[in-house]
Amino acid sequence: MMRSLIRSGEVAVALVVLCASGASGQTSTPVGFLPGLNESVYWWTPIGDSLSAEFNIAPFYPYYDPDAVFNTNRSALGTLSSTTILVGHSAGGVLARYKGQAQALGGVVTYGSPNYGAPLELNYPALCSYIGEIFVHLNNYLYDRWLVPNTDWIIDGLQPFWDEIFGDALSDVCAGIAEMRNVPGHPAGAELMPYGGFIQDTLNAAANVASEEANVAHEASVVITTSDYLDSGAFRIWLGNENGLVVGHGLHYVAEGLFYDYVQILNDHPNEPFWQQIAGDLYQLSSDLAEFDTMWCETVSGHGLCYPNDEAVPTWTQSLGRGYQLNIPSGPVHTAEIAYSAGPLEQVFDQIAVPHVGGGGGGGGDSLSVSINGPTDVKPGARCEWYATIADGIAPYTYHWTPGSYTGSDYDYSNQVSDGGSFTMTVTVTDADGRPGAASELVHVHSTAMECPF
After folding, report:
1. Looking at residue 81, what DSSP letter applies?
2. Is the pLDDT of residue 303 over 60?
3. What's the rounded Cα separation, in Å, for the pair 335 and 448?
4. What DSSP string runs through 137-158?
5. Direct distance between the N- and C-terminal alpha carbons of the chain, in angstroms, rounded to an integer
């Protein structure tokens, strides 16, 4: 196996990975793992290492320059072996496809990629405008209109939450998007606009798609639908997991509290215009805060099928619409998808006939094809979540996870392993016909691991 990572100036120089010979004497399949915008190439390293223990592959990790356009990054990849498989997360999947339009490849796998554009790039100004309106309403309601006798209880109840948590948190969401895109004028971000430009006129132009289909032996796409954004999906992306959870729950707690105050004032002062105005202000601010749920959905999904507080985000990435397609419901937030990719990629590799170590092919036989979707590196004591994915069989399924004794399709576990240790998790599955299946995952514990997106 050969890995190479060479940088020259702002863009990597040409990277050519040669096929290596595995322990069995077979030629290993080179697999390049491409990160997305502002993601480190090293996020893929534990996933590539994990997959190479099961599949006869030679992983490599090309550098992705987030400040360069796709054409520059494609050139930087150099000439790859025609057996190479490129796996790309987010914008990395777009780059993998674009490379496949220029040369023969063994496969392209897009993982959580905006194959038809990233609505976030188009819609984030509307989200920032909405956040700005919340601040205007807050100032009008709290600091201009309510500084009158007998309303201190409203200000005293809300102001500590707002000053310490929500004001900064809402601002950081918008600032985080802007920083990610390096706006104004971020070249790669601009190319991900869903209408016109690179995505429509180049990547998905009929002639280029025809070249892609002719050049690439196998194509596959993995799409993750994020649930739980009511529980701070947006905040977890930009503020981190723990802070995001606190803010997300707190925001909706305050919205509900303001609505309760609105009802109380209506009941206590039914015919007093002054208090009726205060009640209206409370209702407006409560609605503003609760609307964050729908606004975030519309920002990342790009359509109007968003409903308040329904805990379902239509994905901000899209399937290719051809080749093997794997849909993962209730997946992690977008920035944590790589950490949970080993299990789904095992399933994809089986489907596109990547050889196993020792010469075996993909799954099959009398056993269910089961894989574990979750992080392979965690912090000591971290609370993390894994999912079982089943490629065949008849529902409903029964599950049993160890260590511990869990019986759901997802596995919520807080490890007690010290820094530098590891543990093996196993899920045993039985389908409605009694057909069994199992999968195991070795999880390494170390203090430098990424945070779990729980």
Report:
1. P
2. no
3. 17
4. HHIIIIIIIS-STT-HHHHHHH
5. 34
- Tokens found for residue 31: 């697999």
Q: Which amino acid is present at 19? A: C
Inter-CA distances, 344 with 9, 314, 349, 357, Å: 35, 19, 9, 18
Q: Which residues, in sequence order, are CB contacts of 109 under 8 Å at separation 6+? A: 85, 86, 87, 88, 93, 96, 219, 220, 221, 222, 345, 348, 352
> Do the beta carbons of residue 313 and residue 225 sit within 8 Å?
yes
Contact residues for 375 (Cβ-Cβ < 8 A; gap 6+): 339, 340, 384, 386, 443, 449, 450, 452
> What are the φ and ψ backbone dihedral angles of 332, each rounded to 5 degrees?
-75, 170
Neighbours of 52 (CB within 10 A): 17
Q: Determine contact, residues 238/176, Cβ cutoff 8 Å.
A: yes
Of 333, 332, 421, nearest to 380 (Cα)? 421
Task: Read off the tokens for 242.
Answer: 């723990």
The structure tokens 């691991």 sit at 449
Tokens of 318: 């899209």
d(CA 276, CA 282): 10
Residue with tokens 């029964």: 398
Give the span between the Cα atoms of 428 and 420, in whole angstroms: 27
H or E segment and range at residue 32 = strand 29-34
Q: What angle do CA 19, 22, 23 make, to 5 degrees?
A: 165
Half-sphere exposure (Cβ direction) of 348: Cα atoms closer than 13 Å: 28
Which residue type sits at 369?
S
- Residue recorded with tokens 């992690």: 332
pLDDT in tens, 141-196: 665 555 555 555 555 656 655 655 566 667 777 776 666 554 445 566 778 888 77
Inter-residue contact 91 to 113 (CB < 8 Å): yes
Q: What pairing do the DSSP bridges indicate for beta strands 11-12 and 57-60? A: unpaired
Q: Is the per-residue pLDDT at 372 higher than 60? A: yes
Residue whose token pair is 């280029």 = 208
Mean residue pLDDT across the chain: 75
Whether the bond between 62 and the residue before it is cis, its omega within 30 degrees of 0, is no
**Bridge pairing between strands 398-402 and 422-430:** antiparallel
pTM over the 0.85 mark:
no
**CB 411, CB 401: distance < 8 Å:** yes
The residue type found at 189 is G
Beta-sheet strands, E only, within 228-268: none
The four Cα atoms 131, 134, 140, 141 give a dihedral, to 10 degrees, of -160
- pLDDT score for 208: 96
| Other Cβ atoms closer than 10 A to 303 | 9
Which two three-digit tokens encode residue 192? 């991900």
- Tokens representing 120? 């976030």
Give the pair of three-digit tokens for residue 146: 């309510």
Taking the C-alpha atoms of residue 437 and residue 60, their distance in angstroms, rounded to an integer, is: 31
